[in-house]
Amino acid sequence: SEDNKVRRAILSRYRPISGAIAAEYARIYKAQGLRVAQAWIIRIDSELFLGDEKKRLYACAPDNELKQWCELRAHECQRSFNDDLGANVDDPELAMMNARAFVEKQGLKWPLKLKRNMSEKDYQLAWIQAAARAQDAKWWRRQSRTVLGRKREAVAREVRLVSAEKGLYCSNVQLASRKRQAQRNRELLEALEAENQDGQVFTLDQLAECGLGNPRNRFAEMITRSKGNDLIAKELGFEGWMITLTTPSRFHRMRKGNNQCFAVKGWDKERLTPKDAQDYLQELWECIRAEFSRESVRFFGFRVVEPHHDGTPHWHMSIYCLPEDLDFVKNTIRDYALNDS
């Protein structure tokens, strides 16, 4: 039937996760019927690509196809921008706006970086820089990999590929993609060399191992900073506390119970992603900090972000404050954190 052809065509585009998509389709079909299941898989397909109707780049496309698509988009943006600029020499704003419309039509965010209290000259320069990025194939590749990775991972969470039973913290597809990216970075660093004033030559990969790009060094740096915060706190008479902020249950796709994982009921109403959860925690912390500022409460510390088994983040914070402010700090954090639910 026509429905089967549509389903097979969609599944063929997403080979790495097609089995999980088919399984979720079957669950929906069994519970809610063919019409709902068909609408669901069509909606999934509508979210897993960049580009327009004629020139789409799907989320599971191979890397060579991604590079080719980005090269063409950068070239097309450059050609269109130059044509608009040539036709309207006295009005470069039109070329800028058309370039922005083109980038956003492809599904990417216009790379305009604005700051507060910018001068008119800096504002114009920011637009010029954005237009230059939009004509660079490397920029298209970076943004496309990021956006498509998030789209693919959002669907992977929806079809239950991220949990303690399957892909812990992230899907296996995303993990493989991250490993390929790390390998590309490593090959690039190994191919480049740097020479110091003494004539010693090192590859950039060797130099990167000596910095915070090395996970071992980054861990040691975190421990050193933690110890330093503790010593400063003792000198100032501050007390330290470990506080954890987490999100309401609606942000979680999967839950654990009786050594099994289950889908959270009601999650599909909002379909919240790990980025939504991180934004929620960020906004929550901004409200808490504002309350501290209004009451002139001094504090310092640092935080780390850790994912639950289904990829939903939560925060661990090491906070130092004066003993007389401790009750206010704890009550404020608790009130704001529990205000949602």
**Terminal Cα separation, in Å?**
46 Å
Q: How many beta-strand segments?
A: 9
Low confidence ranges: none
What is the oligomer described by this structure? single chain
Summed up, what is this model?
The chain is an alpha+beta fold. Helices cover 60% and strands 13% of the residues.
Write the layout of secondary structure elements.
Layout: H1 2-13, H2 15-32, H3 34-47, E1 49-51, E2 56-58, H4 63-87, H5 92-105, H6 120-134, H7 137-158, H8 172-191, E3 193-195, E4 201-203, H9 204-209, H10 215-236, E5 239-245, E6 254-257, E7 260-263, H11 267-270, H12 274-294, E8 299-307, E9 313-321, H13 326-337
Would you kindly provide a written description of the structure presented here, covering whatever features stand out?
With 341 residues, this protein is an alpha+beta fold. The protein is 60% helix and 13% strand. The protein has 13 helices and 9 strands. It has helices spanning 2-13, 15-32, 34-47, 63-87, 92-105, 120-134, 137-158, 172-191, 204-209, 215-236, 267-270, 274-294, 326-337, and strands spanning 49-51, 56-58, 193-195, 201-203, 239-245, 254-257, 260-263, 299-307, 313-321. It has a 3-stranded antiparallel β-sheet with strand order 5-9-8. A two-stranded antiparallel ribbon has the order 1-2. The two termini are 46 Å apart. The mean pLDDT is 91.
Keyword list:
single chain; 341 residues; alpha+beta; two-stranded antiparallel ribbon; 13 helices
